[in-house]
Amino acid sequence: MKSHTLYSEGDHQWIMFGRDASKQDRIIDTNQYAIISQGKAILLDPGGIELFAPMLAGIVKHFSLDQIEHLFASHQDPDIISSLGLWDQLLDNVTLHSPWIWEGFIRHFGMQNTTYRALPDDGDTLSLGGIELHFIPAHYLHSSGNFNVYDPKAKILFSGDLGAALESVDAPLFVEDFDAHIDKMKYFHQRWMPSERAKQNWIARVRDLDVDYMAPQHGRLFTREAFHQFLDWFSDLKIGIAVP
């Protein structure tokens, strides 16, 4: 599994893990993220059970496991959080931040030692070291209970499945040509995003954020210009196409 440092200033870092060439062919590629501040760390959508070993190997190259105090699951999908039972056995006194609506489902992945912090529908914040992270509602995009994470200091928006594209492990890290990238995103967003009202609500929430990078859970990352191109494109996109 490859890793890439997206942001590093003082004791504040964002690290992306992904592009796992050793994964099985029928397992989709996913991006996992770690935020570290003042020696404390949170893992964002730490991945499926099959990724636990490469994730663990990648993390210890950058920081110590005892720095991990928090996990975040944007929603309930197995590619995001089915590794929970293994993290639960490995880490002591860790807190999982995830939508309240999915607690009874996510616990099926295994939670003996982990505290579940149920996020309310209207969002919340978390103090991590010297920074404040914002859990931003993104409900129905695509899950009925769903959140993004915004770091105003690093100016990074973790967008979950928004902006997602299914890519090969050797694809570029960033969107270099937005128009050429549309075909990689279009069907996924049209099929998996069901609500026009939810779509416009999310766009209104994030459009004025100061974002240098939008970091989705699949595929390439968006620079500031590409982020705003995505918002304009997504605003006009017809979604929920499985229902005539």
From TrEMBL:
Coiled coil: none annotated. This is Uncharacterized flavoprotein. SMART domains: Lactamase_B. It holds the Pfam family ODP. InterPro entries: Metallo-B-lactamas (IPR001279), ODP_dom (IPR045761), RibonucZ/Hydroxyglut_hydro (IPR036866). Residues 29-218 form the Metallo-beta-lactamase domain. Transmembrane segments: none annotated. It comes from Reinekea blandensis MED297. SUPFAM superfamilies: Metallo-hydrolase/oxidoreductase (SSF56281). Gene3D superfamilies: Ribonuclease Z/Hydroxyacylglutathione hydrolase-like.
